Amino acid sequence: MSLPPVDPAVTAEAVAALPARLRKRLDEAVTQARGWPVETAGDRVTVRPDDQVYVVLTVPVTDPADAVCSCLLAPRCLHRTAVLSAAPIRAGGDDPPAPTDDPASDSDPARTGTAPPDQPQPGGPEVSAAQADAAQGLWVVAATILANGIAGAGAVAQADLLRAVHQARATGLHGPAAAAIRVVEHLRAGRRAEPAFRLADLADDLRELLAACHRLAAGDGTVAGVARRDYEPVGDLRLYGLFCEPIRAATGHAGAVTYLADPTGRLWVVSDVKPSDRAATGSATRASVDLGEVRLSHHALSRAGLRAINAHASTVGRLSHGRARQAVAAPGAGWFDPPLDALWQPSLAEQVDRWLAGTVLPAHARPAAHDLAFLDGTVLGTDRRGLLLTLDRPDAAPPLTVVVSAPHEDPALPYVTNLRVLGIHATGRRIRLVGRFTGPRQVDGLAFSARWLQAGATGDTAHGGNTGHGGHGGHVDLGATPLTRADVAETVRARGNFLSPGATFHTVAGRPVLDPTPSPAPAAPPLHLLRHQVERVASAGRSALLSGVDADARRLADAHLGTASAVLTGLAAAGVRRTRDVFGRLDPHDADRLARAWLTAAVYEQAATRATTRQAWSAPAPEAPPP
Known about the structure:
This protein has helices at 8-17, 20-23, 26-33, 78-86, 109-112, 129-152, 155-170, 174-191, 199-217, 298-301, 348-359, 415-425, 528-540, 549-558, 562-576, 589-618; strands spanning 38-41, 44-47, 55-58, 67-69, 232-248, 253-261, 267-275, 305-313, 326-330, 372-383, 386-391, 401-405, 430-439, 442-449, 476-477, 505-508, 511-514. It is an alpha+beta fold. The protein folds into five domains: 8-86, no CATH class; 114-224, Four Helix Bundle (Hemerythrin (Met), subunit A) (Up-down Bundle); 245-332, no CATH class; 341-514, no CATH class; 528-618, no CATH class. The chain has a five-stranded antiparallel β-sheet with strand order 7-6-5-8-9. α6 crosses α13 (528-540), α9 crosses α16 (589-618) and α15 packs antiparallel against α16. The longest helix has 30 residues, at 589-618. The chain starts with 7 loop residues before the first helix and ends in a 9-residue tail after the last helix. Residues 88-130 are annotated as: Disordered.
């Protein structure tokens, strides 16, 4: 079934017009609607619930008149409403782009989305009365959805949130509106039990939505966001290829992305990610780049460079491509040569701060490569978690060992095989790595280079590709190019390639030697207990708080996380508290109290996790945040 996107206001109006007796059957009808036959002819999409009834959608579906049903009850019929509720949500021209797996570039939070929750800006724009009302409407519906959980967030509840989205858009609250749409999409995916559904994403977007509404109610207009912007001129660019990676998104998109850097160190992105029924493989990077006169694959462009005249790019750094753009291929640069060498000069602390600062931004506003790690280190071996890399520490600090994992474990992508080859056959050798931060002392390996990389290896170096540092055009894209033993020939192999977690080493003659008795890994603070309860409430609503919370609160208190224990205890109290009015009806303010307690716990968990993660990257052992 392939339905066109529908404007949120159209869906909300259709559900509101539905008689009460039919609303009770709407969720069942939506499930059936996903199996109804769909025919497309030009700008008209016809859905046939049965032999006598058909629903016609005129693309784009932005007005109630664009959805017509042939039954006698139309437009207040179940067929039309079920089709509209089953269709994707139209993002609209005034909302920020939906989050993708594509990278983004440097951006100003005040220009491209909402500001970080922990960086209020009192001097920002004032909140109008209409915006305050719209934010209150979003809060009330989101609080109700949170109290009822996924099971209780059917088509009617989703339509209520879409109606609030329409009001928010009309008043200029583009950031909260975009977050609310993502919440609806997660709810739909969760109710359909789609493999792409991630409860963590639903919890994060609910937190973003409620936090934005809370700040708007307090008069902070910096979270309103701005309307979606098209590509804008950025002048002439001289770019150097850095690396490329195959993309496989949970949303069904696949393709390849190439990262490039300009002489100032700013990163830019050439993206070719499209809806696809086939999973991405390493060959996706061999597809041609559609950018002006550039006749290179993503693989070759990441080893070459380009000159762009009057280039256009989005505010998040994604280059506009197409034959209409003026761009030609140019020589590239090696990772050990300027200007790319400068990417590895910032300290580890600066890189971690850049990553953590980006995580608090909405997905569409995160700077490009905010989560990329540029690391120099020595290969120690492998363990069950992945490749072990000890980092160069010019500040004479204690050695820091990082786990390099595979972003995808699918055999169609050579990530796992390449990391295994490095761990077994390159032990004791120094490499230069580009990874993606994923957690405390953990990164996903994306590409690497080394001065010892064998010059005889095969690489795609046509059209200006760089060959100045060995084979593979100067570096190896771990998700695209399989490594062999010949690529790492004459490498010193050491015993103990497969290490247990927490293995330590000392240095002899400039090379790492494993200690015979590895010390145990230090225990991290049990913040996962709080995160687990936050996600449980997002999934099951207040019923998740009926049991199991007191034990987790005690464990947090025993770990000297007093604030974490307090916010979890407050969340449990708000969840079980049910009051009634003089007529015996449940008080709707209970949902508001639960939402505030949940938001308090979610925001604390996010901040505490960032603090412990930063500590893990800067000290030999992670420490608990202050209680």
